[in-house]
Amino acid sequence: MEVLDRMLARAQANVQRIVLPEGDEARTLEAAEILLRDKVAKLILIGNPESISQQAQEKGLTHIGEARIVDPKNNPDLEKYANLLYELRKAKGMTIEDATKKAQDPLYLGCLMIKAGDADGEVAGARGTTADTIRPAFQILKTRPGVSIVSGAFLMITPAKQLGENGVLLFADCAVNPCPNAEELAQIAISTAETARSLVGIEPRVGMLSFSTKGSAKHELIDKVTEATRIAHELAPDLEIDGELQADAALIPVVAEKKAPGSKVAGKANVLVFPDLQAGNIGYKLVERFSGADAIGPILQGIAAPVNDLSRGCKVQDIVQMVIITANQAMK
Question: Which of 67, 91, 170, 250 has the fewest CB atoms within 10 Å of its CB?
Answer without folding.
Answer: 91
